[in-house]
Write a structure and sequence with these properties.
Helices cover 33% and strands 12% of the residues. The chain is an alpha/beta fold. A six-stranded mixed β-sheet has the order 2-1-3-6-5-4. Helix 2 crosses helix 7.
């Protein structure tokens, strides 16, 4: 894969969302959502045998190295003429770091690291990057609305406006980066957000996974894709097992792969 070309395509994609027309509906949600988390491919993606897209629910707050704290919301991002360049600089430095750091914080990143280690232990060259079904977490709520710290609930007008603004972003990202496997570790409650991205989506139960993993099939999903029943933060024990089961079903790790500490 030509990494430079793929990253240029990603940048052009983000520029289109940055430059979307401003509407009253946009203004309503733009100040309530944190800045977008942009995907940027590391050099290791180019020659990896297995290119894994590890897709969560939404970023927990404004992720990044803090160098551009003036871009805190979608509104800040849209108002900044070079907003894409600035956020790309943030995520260029962190796109693979969270997935491969030896001591990740939180179960989401811990399980990402475990998946990375298991695939490498099987003798394969692997690269892994992370994205989210929802690219922006709720930063603040408009007045008189019930507070849900990081969740997007489509029964509010401002959330509907946000979902309309980002429609197609995830599927376009995945098309550009061309992963060989997608792990959606978002849980069943986020299935509602797949429908706008993949209208022809079908869920197939993976019998060996005790009902905790679904294989996803859709015309625009161009590689094997799986969705776990729960998101990682919901698990107290054995939370990694659905991810391990998906990797086994995809034949990325052997059936007898041992548990990781």
């Amino acid at each position: 894969m030509d990494i430079k070309r793929a990253n240029q395509e990603l940048k052009a994609l983000y520029e289109r969302y940055h430059d979307k027309p401003r509407t009253p509906e946009f203004e309503e949600f733009a100040k309530c959502f944190c800045r977008p988390q942009l995907l940027w491919l590391p050099d290791s993606w180019a020659n990896a045998t297995h290119r894994i897209a590890y897709v969560g629910r939404e970023p927990y707050g404004a992720v990044g190295n803090g160098a551009f704290t003036k871009i805190e919301t979608v509104s800040d991002f849209s108002n900044c003429t070079d907003g894409v360049d600035k956020l790309v600089a943030v995520f260029d430095a962190s796109s693979e770091f969270f997935a491969t750091t030896p001591n990740p914080r939180g179960k989401f990143w811990l399980y990402c690291r475990r998946a990375y280690d298991l695939i490498r232990a099987s003798g394969s060259n692997v690269s892994i990057v992370s994205s989210n079904i929802i690219h922006c977490a709720v930063k603040t709520q408009p007045t008189k609305l019930e507070k849900h710290d990081y969740a997007i609930w489509p029964n509010t007008d401002y959330a509907k406006a946000y979902l309309d603004w980002k429609k197609g972003l995830l599927s376009e990202e995945l098309r550009v980066i061309a992963p060989t496997l997608i792990l959606f570790v978002n849980g069943v409650c986020y299935d509602q957000f797949f429908t706008t991205e993949y209208p022809d989506l079908h869920y197939i139960n993976v019998e060996e996974c005790d009902g905790k993993v679904r294989r996803l099939e859709a015309g625009d999903l161009r590689c094997p894709a799986y969705r776990t029943y729960h998101h990682p933060q919901a698990h107290d024990t054995n939370g990694f097992e659905p991810i391990r089961c998906a990797l086994r079903d995809a034949k990325l790790i052997p059936p007898e792969s041992p548990p990781l500490a």
